[in-house]
Amino acid sequence: MALNSDGAKRAPLSFPKQNNLEWLRLLFALQVVVVHASEHLNAHFEIVKLLKHFPGVPAFFFVSGFLIYASYFNAPGKRYFQNRFLRLFPGLVFVTAGGAIVAMAAHGASDIVSRFPTYAGWFIAQISLGQAYNPSHFRDVGVGVINGSLWTLTTEILFYFMVPVIVALERHVRQAVLICSALSFAVYLVGPLMLTQPVVRDKTLFDVLALTPIVWGWMFGFGMLAVKHFAWLQRHMRMLPLAVIPLIFVIAFGIDQDPIVGSSGNRVGIIYFSAYICLVVWLAFGTPFVHLGADLSYGTYVWHMPVINLLLILAKPSLPIALVLTLSIAFISWFIVEKPALAKKRKSLQSPVGATLPTAQTQTD
Protein backbone atom coordinates (compact mmCIF):
# COMPACT_ATOMS: atom_id res chain seq x y z
CA MET A 1 0.00 0.00 0.00
CA ALA A 2 1.04 3.59 -0.61
CA LEU A 3 1.49 5.94 2.32
CA ASN A 4 0.09 9.37 3.04
CA SER A 5 2.47 12.14 4.10
CA ASP A 6 1.68 11.33 7.71
CA GLY A 7 2.65 7.69 7.19
CA ALA A 8 -0.89 6.31 7.30
CA LYS A 9 -1.70 3.51 4.88
CA ARG A 10 -4.23 4.10 2.14
CA ALA A 11 -5.91 1.75 -0.30
CA PRO A 12 -4.40 1.84 -3.80
CA LEU A 13 -6.36 2.94 -6.83
CA SER A 14 -6.62 -0.12 -9.03
CA PHE A 15 -8.11 -1.34 -12.28
CA PRO A 16 -7.60 -4.42 -14.48
CA LYS A 17 -4.26 -4.40 -16.27
CA GLN A 18 -5.78 -6.53 -19.00
CA ASN A 19 -7.44 -3.61 -20.76
CA ASN A 20 -7.66 -2.16 -24.25
CA LEU A 21 -6.24 1.29 -23.53
CA GLU A 22 -3.19 0.44 -25.64
CA TRP A 23 -5.03 0.02 -28.94
CA LEU A 24 -7.54 2.73 -28.07
CA ARG A 25 -4.71 5.25 -27.69
CA LEU A 26 -3.35 4.14 -31.05
CA LEU A 27 -6.78 4.80 -32.58
CA PHE A 28 -6.83 8.25 -30.95
CA ALA A 29 -3.41 9.00 -32.45
CA LEU A 30 -4.46 7.74 -35.88
CA GLN A 31 -7.55 9.95 -35.75
CA VAL A 32 -5.29 12.98 -35.30
CA VAL A 33 -2.99 11.79 -38.11
CA VAL A 34 -5.82 11.30 -40.60
CA VAL A 35 -7.52 14.62 -39.78
CA HIS A 36 -4.27 16.61 -40.02
CA ALA A 37 -3.08 14.78 -43.13
CA SER A 38 -6.40 15.37 -44.88
CA GLU A 39 -6.17 19.08 -44.08
CA HIS A 40 -2.52 19.65 -45.00
CA LEU A 41 -2.11 17.15 -47.85
CA ASN A 42 -5.38 18.01 -49.61
CA ALA A 43 -6.67 14.47 -49.16
CA HIS A 44 -10.33 15.15 -48.46
CA PHE A 45 -12.51 12.13 -47.72
CA GLU A 46 -16.03 11.98 -46.37
CA ILE A 47 -14.92 9.71 -43.53
CA VAL A 48 -12.79 12.53 -42.16
CA LYS A 49 -15.96 14.48 -41.34
CA LEU A 50 -17.10 11.55 -39.21
CA LEU A 51 -13.69 11.12 -37.59
CA LYS A 52 -13.78 14.73 -36.37
CA HIS A 53 -16.62 13.65 -34.07
CA PHE A 54 -14.25 11.27 -32.29
CA PRO A 55 -11.35 13.62 -31.47
CA GLY A 56 -8.13 12.02 -30.30
CA VAL A 57 -6.76 14.83 -28.12
CA PRO A 58 -9.67 15.07 -25.62
CA ALA A 59 -9.66 11.27 -25.34
CA PHE A 60 -5.90 11.33 -24.69
CA PHE A 61 -6.41 13.90 -21.93
CA PHE A 62 -9.09 11.73 -20.30
CA VAL A 63 -6.93 8.59 -20.42
CA SER A 64 -3.93 10.53 -19.07
CA GLY A 65 -5.99 11.78 -16.14
CA PHE A 66 -7.06 8.21 -15.45
CA LEU A 67 -3.60 6.61 -15.64
CA ILE A 68 -1.37 9.36 -14.29
CA TYR A 69 -3.52 10.06 -11.23
CA ALA A 70 -3.56 6.35 -10.39
CA SER A 71 0.19 6.18 -10.95
CA TYR A 72 0.92 9.02 -8.51
CA PHE A 73 -1.63 7.89 -5.94
CA ASN A 74 -0.10 4.43 -5.80
CA ALA A 75 3.58 5.50 -5.97
CA PRO A 76 4.07 9.16 -5.05
CA GLY A 77 7.33 11.02 -4.87
CA LYS A 78 10.56 10.55 -6.79
CA ARG A 79 9.48 7.37 -8.59
CA TYR A 80 6.46 9.14 -10.09
CA PHE A 81 8.62 11.83 -11.72
CA GLN A 82 11.21 9.29 -12.87
CA ASN A 83 8.49 7.27 -14.60
CA ARG A 84 7.01 10.32 -16.28
CA PHE A 85 10.47 11.33 -17.54
CA LEU A 86 11.19 7.89 -18.96
CA ARG A 87 7.83 7.78 -20.73
CA LEU A 88 8.07 11.13 -22.49
CA PHE A 89 11.60 12.45 -22.72
CA PRO A 90 13.50 9.83 -24.81
CA GLY A 91 10.83 9.79 -27.53
CA LEU A 92 10.59 13.58 -27.41
CA VAL A 93 14.33 14.00 -27.96
CA PHE A 94 14.15 11.52 -30.86
CA VAL A 95 11.30 13.30 -32.64
CA THR A 96 12.88 16.73 -32.04
CA ALA A 97 16.04 15.50 -33.78
CA GLY A 98 13.77 14.31 -36.59
CA GLY A 99 12.14 17.73 -36.77
CA ALA A 100 15.56 19.35 -37.14
CA ILE A 101 16.29 17.01 -40.06
CA VAL A 102 13.00 18.05 -41.68
CA ALA A 103 14.01 21.71 -41.36
CA MET A 104 17.39 20.95 -42.93
CA ALA A 105 15.66 19.07 -45.74
CA ALA A 106 13.91 22.34 -46.55
CA HIS A 107 16.83 24.74 -46.01
CA GLY A 108 19.85 22.55 -46.71
CA ALA A 109 22.16 20.63 -44.36
CA SER A 110 24.42 23.65 -43.87
CA ASP A 111 21.50 25.61 -42.39
CA ILE A 112 22.07 24.13 -38.94
CA VAL A 113 25.60 25.58 -38.94
CA SER A 114 24.66 29.06 -40.15
CA ARG A 115 21.58 29.16 -37.90
CA PHE A 116 22.88 27.14 -34.96
CA PRO A 117 21.50 29.46 -32.22
CA THR A 118 18.04 29.21 -33.82
CA TYR A 119 18.17 25.43 -33.96
CA ALA A 120 19.61 25.15 -30.44
CA GLY A 121 16.99 27.43 -28.91
CA TRP A 122 14.19 25.61 -30.71
CA PHE A 123 15.58 22.20 -29.69
CA ILE A 124 15.77 23.16 -26.01
CA ALA A 125 12.24 24.60 -26.13
CA GLN A 126 10.87 21.43 -27.75
CA ILE A 127 12.27 19.11 -25.08
CA SER A 128 11.27 21.28 -22.12
CA LEU A 129 8.04 23.30 -21.87
CA GLY A 130 8.30 25.43 -25.01
CA GLN A 131 6.73 23.06 -27.53
CA ALA A 132 4.61 25.93 -28.90
CA TYR A 133 7.74 27.94 -29.78
CA ASN A 134 8.25 28.17 -33.54
CA PRO A 135 11.04 30.43 -34.88
CA SER A 136 10.15 32.59 -37.88
CA HIS A 137 13.01 30.87 -39.72
CA PHE A 138 10.89 27.69 -39.87
CA ARG A 139 7.68 29.29 -41.10
CA ASP A 140 8.40 28.43 -44.74
CA VAL A 141 8.81 24.73 -43.89
CA GLY A 142 5.79 22.61 -44.83
CA VAL A 143 2.73 23.87 -42.97
CA GLY A 144 4.77 26.59 -41.26
CA VAL A 145 5.33 24.80 -37.94
CA ILE A 146 7.74 21.89 -37.58
CA ASN A 147 5.65 20.03 -35.01
CA GLY A 148 2.62 22.04 -33.97
CA SER A 149 0.85 19.05 -32.40
CA LEU A 150 3.32 19.03 -29.53
CA TRP A 151 1.38 21.80 -27.77
CA THR A 152 -0.51 18.96 -26.09
CA LEU A 153 2.74 17.78 -24.49
CA THR A 154 3.10 21.17 -22.81
CA THR A 155 -0.37 20.66 -21.33
CA GLU A 156 0.44 17.06 -20.44
CA ILE A 157 3.71 17.87 -18.65
CA LEU A 158 2.11 20.70 -16.68
CA PHE A 159 -0.62 18.27 -15.65
CA TYR A 160 2.05 15.90 -14.34
CA PHE A 161 3.26 18.64 -12.01
CA MET A 162 -0.29 19.49 -10.93
CA VAL A 163 -1.19 15.95 -9.86
CA PRO A 164 0.90 16.01 -6.63
CA VAL A 165 -0.65 19.38 -5.76
CA ILE A 166 -4.18 18.06 -6.29
CA VAL A 167 -3.43 14.94 -4.23
CA ALA A 168 -2.11 17.17 -1.44
CA LEU A 169 -5.27 19.29 -1.62
CA GLU A 170 -7.39 16.17 -1.31
CA ARG A 171 -5.99 15.59 2.18
CA HIS A 172 -7.80 18.77 3.24
CA VAL A 173 -10.61 19.09 0.67
CA ARG A 174 -12.21 15.77 -0.17
CA GLN A 175 -13.72 16.94 -3.46
CA ALA A 176 -10.57 18.70 -4.69
CA VAL A 177 -10.59 16.88 -8.05
CA LEU A 178 -14.20 17.82 -8.70
CA ILE A 179 -13.63 21.45 -7.66
CA CYS A 180 -10.52 21.82 -9.82
CA SER A 181 -12.33 20.25 -12.76
CA ALA A 182 -15.26 22.64 -12.37
CA LEU A 183 -12.95 25.66 -12.23
CA SER A 184 -11.14 24.46 -15.35
CA PHE A 185 -14.41 23.98 -17.21
CA ALA A 186 -15.47 27.50 -16.22
CA VAL A 187 -12.36 28.88 -17.96
CA TYR A 188 -13.03 26.58 -20.94
CA LEU A 189 -16.59 27.90 -21.08
CA VAL A 190 -16.11 31.66 -20.79
CA GLY A 191 -12.44 32.10 -21.72
CA PRO A 192 -12.96 32.63 -25.48
CA LEU A 193 -15.52 35.34 -24.69
CA MET A 194 -13.80 37.18 -21.83
CA LEU A 195 -10.04 36.52 -22.02
CA THR A 196 -9.57 38.14 -25.42
CA GLN A 197 -6.92 40.77 -24.68
CA PRO A 198 -3.60 40.21 -26.54
CA VAL A 199 -0.69 39.34 -24.25
CA VAL A 200 2.00 37.94 -26.59
CA ARG A 201 2.03 39.40 -30.10
CA ASP A 202 -1.39 38.44 -31.51
CA LYS A 203 -2.04 35.73 -28.93
CA THR A 204 -4.81 36.38 -26.41
CA LEU A 205 -4.74 35.45 -22.75
CA PHE A 206 -7.03 32.52 -23.54
CA ASP A 207 -4.65 31.34 -26.29
CA VAL A 208 -1.85 31.24 -23.72
CA LEU A 209 -3.98 29.48 -21.10
CA ALA A 210 -5.03 26.97 -23.76
CA LEU A 211 -1.50 25.55 -23.58
CA THR A 212 -2.12 24.57 -19.96
CA PRO A 213 -4.41 22.35 -17.86
CA ILE A 214 -6.18 25.51 -16.73
CA VAL A 215 -8.30 25.16 -19.88
CA TRP A 216 -8.12 21.41 -20.53
CA GLY A 217 -7.83 20.22 -16.93
CA TRP A 218 -11.49 19.26 -16.68
CA MET A 219 -10.88 16.54 -19.30
CA PHE A 220 -8.02 15.18 -17.20
CA GLY A 221 -10.30 15.60 -14.20
CA PHE A 222 -12.92 13.30 -15.69
CA GLY A 223 -10.19 10.66 -15.97
CA MET A 224 -9.15 11.19 -12.36
CA LEU A 225 -12.76 10.88 -11.21
CA ALA A 226 -13.18 7.74 -13.31
CA VAL A 227 -10.29 5.94 -11.63
CA LYS A 228 -11.41 7.14 -8.18
CA HIS A 229 -14.85 5.64 -8.83
CA PHE A 230 -13.77 2.73 -11.01
CA ALA A 231 -15.51 0.16 -8.80
CA TRP A 232 -18.82 1.93 -9.46
CA LEU A 233 -18.10 2.08 -13.21
CA GLN A 234 -17.25 -1.61 -13.21
CA ARG A 235 -20.60 -2.46 -11.61
CA HIS A 236 -22.41 -0.48 -14.30
CA MET A 237 -20.16 -1.42 -17.24
CA ARG A 238 -23.01 -3.00 -19.22
CA MET A 239 -24.89 0.29 -19.17
CA LEU A 240 -22.07 2.39 -20.61
CA PRO A 241 -22.72 1.52 -24.31
CA LEU A 242 -26.05 3.33 -23.95
CA ALA A 243 -24.00 6.53 -24.07
CA VAL A 244 -24.09 6.14 -27.85
CA ILE A 245 -27.66 7.50 -27.75
CA PRO A 246 -26.85 11.02 -26.47
CA LEU A 247 -23.66 10.92 -28.54
CA ILE A 248 -25.61 10.43 -31.77
CA PHE A 249 -28.17 13.03 -30.71
CA VAL A 250 -25.50 15.67 -30.11
CA ILE A 251 -23.78 14.85 -33.42
CA ALA A 252 -27.10 15.39 -35.18
CA PHE A 253 -28.22 18.53 -33.37
CA GLY A 254 -25.16 19.95 -31.61
CA ILE A 255 -23.22 23.10 -32.50
CA ASP A 256 -19.56 22.76 -33.46
CA GLN A 257 -17.08 24.25 -30.99
CA ASP A 258 -19.85 24.87 -28.45
CA PRO A 259 -18.57 24.08 -24.91
CA ILE A 260 -21.90 22.53 -23.94
CA VAL A 261 -23.20 20.71 -27.03
CA GLY A 262 -20.23 20.76 -29.40
CA SER A 263 -19.45 17.41 -31.01
CA SER A 264 -16.47 18.01 -33.28
CA GLY A 265 -12.78 18.83 -32.90
CA ASN A 266 -10.82 19.35 -29.69
CA ARG A 267 -13.30 21.88 -28.30
CA VAL A 268 -16.10 19.41 -27.67
CA GLY A 269 -19.00 20.14 -25.39
CA ILE A 270 -19.24 18.66 -21.92
CA ILE A 271 -22.39 16.68 -22.78
CA TYR A 272 -20.75 15.06 -25.78
CA PHE A 273 -17.48 14.49 -23.92
CA SER A 274 -19.30 12.73 -21.08
CA ALA A 275 -20.95 10.32 -23.50
CA TYR A 276 -17.73 9.88 -25.47
CA ILE A 277 -15.65 8.85 -22.47
CA CYS A 278 -18.33 6.41 -21.34
CA LEU A 279 -17.73 4.57 -24.61
CA VAL A 280 -13.97 4.83 -24.10
CA VAL A 281 -14.25 3.23 -20.65
CA TRP A 282 -16.51 0.48 -21.99
CA LEU A 283 -14.20 -0.30 -24.92
CA ALA A 284 -11.19 -0.31 -22.57
CA PHE A 285 -12.61 -2.47 -19.80
CA GLY A 286 -15.89 -3.98 -21.00
CA THR A 287 -14.78 -5.67 -24.22
CA PRO A 288 -12.47 -8.68 -24.81
CA PHE A 289 -8.81 -7.93 -24.23
CA VAL A 290 -6.62 -7.51 -27.33
CA HIS A 291 -2.85 -7.37 -26.80
CA LEU A 292 -0.92 -5.39 -29.43
CA GLY A 293 2.61 -6.15 -28.30
CA ALA A 294 3.84 -2.65 -29.11
CA ASP A 295 2.62 0.73 -27.89
CA LEU A 296 2.83 2.87 -31.03
CA SER A 297 0.44 5.60 -29.90
CA TYR A 298 3.01 8.10 -28.59
CA GLY A 299 5.35 7.70 -31.55
CA THR A 300 2.46 7.94 -34.02
CA TYR A 301 1.20 11.14 -32.44
CA VAL A 302 4.50 12.99 -32.06
CA TRP A 303 5.91 11.98 -35.47
CA HIS A 304 2.96 12.63 -37.78
CA MET A 305 3.49 16.38 -38.28
CA PRO A 306 7.23 16.11 -39.12
CA VAL A 307 6.23 13.41 -41.63
CA ILE A 308 3.52 15.61 -43.15
CA ASN A 309 5.98 18.50 -43.39
CA LEU A 310 8.57 16.26 -45.06
CA LEU A 311 6.03 15.09 -47.65
CA LEU A 312 5.15 18.71 -48.43
CA ILE A 313 8.85 19.57 -48.84
CA LEU A 314 9.28 16.59 -51.20
CA ALA A 315 6.06 17.48 -53.08
CA LYS A 316 4.58 14.06 -52.24
CA PRO A 317 1.26 14.97 -50.58
CA SER A 318 -0.15 11.50 -49.98
CA LEU A 319 -2.24 10.45 -47.00
CA PRO A 320 -1.44 6.71 -47.41
CA ILE A 321 2.30 7.48 -47.52
CA ALA A 322 1.92 9.71 -44.45
CA LEU A 323 0.21 6.88 -42.54
CA VAL A 324 2.71 4.21 -43.55
CA LEU A 325 5.75 6.41 -42.88
CA THR A 326 4.41 7.66 -39.54
CA LEU A 327 3.63 4.14 -38.31
CA SER A 328 6.99 2.87 -39.51
CA ILE A 329 8.88 5.56 -37.59
CA ALA A 330 6.61 4.99 -34.56
CA PHE A 331 7.58 1.30 -34.71
CA ILE A 332 11.27 2.24 -34.72
CA SER A 333 10.73 4.76 -31.93
CA TRP A 334 9.01 2.17 -29.75
CA PHE A 335 11.56 -0.62 -30.11
CA ILE A 336 14.74 1.45 -30.35
CA VAL A 337 13.99 4.38 -28.03
CA GLU A 338 10.83 4.13 -25.93
CA LYS A 339 10.76 0.47 -24.91
CA PRO A 340 14.40 0.39 -23.73
CA ALA A 341 13.74 3.55 -21.69
CA LEU A 342 10.60 2.06 -20.15
CA ALA A 343 12.57 -1.04 -19.15
CA LYS A 344 14.21 1.21 -16.55
CA LYS A 345 10.83 2.25 -15.19
CA ARG A 346 9.66 0.90 -11.85
CA LYS A 347 6.07 -0.30 -11.86
CA SER A 348 3.72 2.02 -10.01
CA LEU A 349 0.22 0.85 -10.91
CA GLN A 350 -1.05 -1.95 -8.71
CA SER A 351 -3.32 -4.78 -9.73
CA PRO A 352 -6.75 -5.19 -8.15
CA VAL A 353 -6.82 -7.40 -5.06
CA GLY A 354 -7.53 -10.99 -6.03
CA ALA A 355 -6.92 -10.50 -9.76
CA THR A 356 -4.73 -12.95 -11.63
CA LEU A 357 -2.94 -11.06 -14.35
CA PRO A 358 -0.15 -11.98 -16.76
CA THR A 359 3.10 -10.39 -15.66
CA ALA A 360 3.99 -9.44 -19.23
CA GLN A 361 1.10 -7.01 -19.52
CA THR A 362 1.96 -3.63 -17.97
CA GLN A 363 0.78 -0.08 -18.38
CA THR A 364 3.19 2.25 -20.16
CA ASP A 365 2.06 5.49 -18.52
Describe it.
This protein is an all-alpha fold and about 375 residues long. The chain has one domain. About 60% of the residues lie in helices and about 0% in strands. The protein has 15 helices and 4 strands. It has helices at about 20-40, 45-50, 55-75, 80-105, 110-115, 115-125, 150-170, 175-195, 205-210, 215-230, 230-235, 245-255, 270-285, 295-315, 320-340, and strands at about 1-5, 10, 200, 205. It has a two-stranded antiparallel ribbon. The chain has a two-stranded antiparallel sheet with strand order 3-4. Helix 3 (about 55-75) packs parallel to helix 7 (about 150-170) and helix 12 (about 245-255) runs antiparallel to helix 13. The longest helix is centred in the N-terminal third of the chain and has 30 residues, at about 80-105. It is globular and about 60 Å long. It starts with a strand and ends in a 23-residue tail after the last helix. Residues about 1-10 and about 350-360 have low confidence and may be disordered.
Question: Secondary structure elements and their pairing?
Answer:
Blueprint: E1 2-3, E2 9-10, H1 21-40, H2 46-51, H3 56-74, H4 78-107, H5 111-114, H6 116-126, H7 151-170, H8 176-194, E3 198-200, E4 203-204, H9 205-209, H10 213-228, H11 230-235, H12 244-253, H13 270-285, H14 297-313, H15 319-342
Antiparallel strand pairs: 1-2, 3-4
What does this entry show, briefly?
By secondary structure, this protein is mainly α. It contains 15 helices and 4 strands. The chain has one domain.
List keywords for this structure.
365 residues, 15 helices, two-stranded antiparallel ribbon, 4 strands, two-stranded antiparallel sheet, mainly alpha
